[in-house]
Amino acid sequence: MPGAEAFVSDLVDKNIPFMCLTNNSLKKRTDMALHLQGLGLKIERDQIYTSAMSTARFLAQQQQGCRVYCLGGGGILTALEKNGVEVVDDRPDYVIVGEGRDYTLEMIDKAIRFLKEGARLFAVNLDTQRATAFGLRSGCGSIVKMLEEETGKKAFNLGKPSALMLRGARKMLGLRASFTVMIGDHMDTDILGGIQLGYHTILLMTGRAQEEELKEYSFQPDTIIKNLAEFSVEQLEEIISQKPIDEDYLITFG
Known about the structure:
By secondary structure, the chain is of the alpha/beta class. The protein contains nine helices and 13 strands. It has helices at residues 4-13, 29-38, 51-62, 75-82, 105-116, 140-151, 163-173, 187-196, 233-241, and strands at residues 18-22, 48-50, 67-71, 86-87, 94-97, 120-123, 129-132, 135-138, 156-157, 180-184, 200-204, 223-225, 250-253. A hairpin with a 2-residue loop joins strand 7 and strand 8 (135-138). The longest helix is centred in the first third of the chain and has 12 residues, at 51-62. The model has no long low-confidence stretch (mean pLDDT 89).
């Protein structure tokens, strides 16, 4: 994205805390950080917060020693293990839908059976499509809709725009909601989530959001910019300067 490298460098140089939020539960944080660093961005592993982390932490808080049947791999399995959530192939308390490359009809049939037997349904995100190097592919939301239709159960989403995910990222930095700025390119996840938590929202018109579609939404971002090349840390500081002087702030990226 034009301007991203310089913008992130300025944040780092000025010691402005920030967190990168992603609904991608397939990759591990370490892999994501290495990828971003390869693009020239000064982003460390601990500055990335994923929907897989949000899901695993919530489950661990809800029920210690819970059993989970997981449709997905990579990042979500790692997050579940780190939070002491047991991944099983029978009698689960929860069925979790995350990104994966190896879904089979047998796995989906198992998930349906477990849900009908009483397991509860969780979604790592509700994105119906995800961008890959090979183009758009079906996302978690597509699988979730199928399971909901078949079982009559409603999935609980822990990815963006979930308030639990956005609040969890903010709490990791120990800062206040009124001084959070949410920067993202998706109205239904980044901007909606930021508005619901009272963050100042900045929409990037980088291809995912289309200007003609904005009028269809009942909510609007606080600020709209073409890309980060036309937005500086000084402008960010101007936004923050309108807040009470004795408070801190943070940035989150969608």
